[in-house]
Design goal:
- By secondary structure, the protein is mainly α.
- The protein has one domain.
- 79% of the residues lie in helices and 0% in strands.
- It has helices at residues 2-7, 10-45, 57-84, 88-99, 104-107, 109-114, 119-124, 128-141, 146-176, 184-194.
- Helix 2 packs across helix 3, helix 2 (10-45) packs across helix 9 (146-176) and helix 9 crosses helix 10 (184-194).
């Protein structure tokens, strides 16, 4: 651990954690996609109307892109929480209230699908934690301008990058305060001093 901490910057360490989480998530998705590819045709044979289903290829591509961007944001949040806590129990308590906003589109899916161009859907499309799921729902419900899709993706990635920068600062401060509990006040002070 000492060699790692002396040869890499806190940003590199946190980025490595996020990449590791991302690779694990993509491996999981690969297993699920393989299962669907293998078992899907067998299941479809049992349903006569299964041949009428059509999936838009561009929707699948955009959903995959937003999935990766959303995983990046959630992974950064997870790594930041891990950097700010000293135990698994403490991290679990912090994760739910911090990550809960990411699930808002899931709770509001019916509203978002019924009015995909409404103000709520548009606002949620430009909040880094909610944009991935919101844009996937909106893209499946209606045609969205390319500029809006790209802008939402850019906001998500930029938000993740800012969160990664903050998580690296919190990680660095946590190393310097080894054994001490990281409080919200210390986190905010660390971020203020880094800026």
């Amino acid at each position: 651990m000492e060699i790692l901490l002396t040869s890499a910057t806190p940003l590199e360490v946190m980025a490595g954690k996020v990449v590791g989480l991302g690779v694990l998530g993509l491996a999981q998705m690969l297993v699920w996609a393989s299962s669907v590819a293998i078992l899907g045709p067998r299941v479809a044979e049992r349903f006569s109307a299964a041949g009428d289903l059509a999936v838009d290829g561009s929707l699948v591509v955009w959903a995959a892109i937003f999935f990766v961007a959303g995983c990046f944001v959630i992974g950064v949040i997870s790594a930041g929480i891990g950097a700010a806590t000293t135990s698994l129990h403490e991290a679990r308590q912090l994760f739910l209230p911090i990550a809960l906003p990411a699930y808002v589109p899931l709770f509001l899916w019916q509203v978002l699908i019924e009015d995909p161009d409404g103000p709520l859907a548009r606002v949620l499309s430009f909040i880094p934690m909610t944009s991935a799921m919101t844009m996937t729902l909106r893209l499946g419900a209606t045609d969205i301008a390319l500029w809006e899709t790209l802008a939402s993706l850019a906001v998500t990635i930029a938000g993740g990058a800012v969160l990664l920068w903050g998580a690296a600062r919190v990680f660095r401060a946590g190393l310097l305060m080894y054994g001490q509990r990281m409080t919200v006040r210390r986190i905010l002070t660390t971020l203020r001093q880094a800026g």
